[in-house]
Amino acid sequence: MVRRDFIQKAIVSSGAMIIGIAGFSDTFSNIITKQNFDFMTQTHPNLSLINDFFTAYGSNDLNGIKKVLSEDIQWHIPGEHPLSGTKTGIDEVLEFFKKLSKGAFKAEPIVMGVNDNYVIDCHRNWSNLENTDNLNAMSCLLWRIENKKIKEVHNFPQNQKDVDTFFKKLYS
Question: Are 122 and 103 contacting, i.e. CB atoms less than 8 angstroms apart?
């Protein structure tokens, strides 16, 4: 099929679909207006918990961070660099955050998903260091929630090799 024939058929098909949809527009409109979409404006409690974490983390509020973490939290950092490994308990997680601050990281959320047990948070994160190569990548965090506390976190970086290289250089 040549391009001109394809375009003509696409235009005819689109027009037929529009005419068909127009005939159902009143029915469709009635269905939509009778639906209850309140769930789209309510915040899930697990999203509020993660927001509380980021608010406390962003202001270096250690007591605020402690309030949202389970006593036996496990925070999993993949890779082969000085910060990788599983941090167990609030004290180890806070020590990890203290070491992480050397990278002067910033983050920008991209998308979050939630259910009653998990939150997935995908974001762009970048370091803000002078006179060195900075890390600028995406990461996802999978948060497991239990008893209204953050029980476990798994970190999934966009490119583990870049993360390893950055932290090896930063801590060498």
Answer: no
CA distances from 147 to 40, 50, 51, 69, 120 (A): 24, 14, 17, 10, 18
> Percent of the chain scored above 90 by pLDDT?
59
Report how far apart, in Å, the C-alpha atoms of 120 and of each of 30, 50, 82, 114, 161 are: 35, 10, 25, 6, 22
pLDDT digits (tens, 9 = 90+) for 139-170: 999 999 999 999 999 999 999 999 999 999 99
What's the rounded Cα separation, in Å, for the pair 1 and 23?
31
Q: For residue 93, give both structure tokens.
A: 């997680």
Q: Rounded to whole angstroms, what are the CA distances from 128 to 23, 125, 133, 171?
A: 56, 10, 9, 15
What is the per-residue pLDDT across 116-131, written as a single tens digit (0 to 9) for each? 999 999 999 989 899 8
One-letter identity of residue 93: V
**What tokens were used for 103?**
């990278």
Full-model pTM: 0.74
**Using an 8 Å Cβ cutoff, are 150 and 141 in contact?**
no
Give mean pLDDT, residues 5-23.
Answer: 48
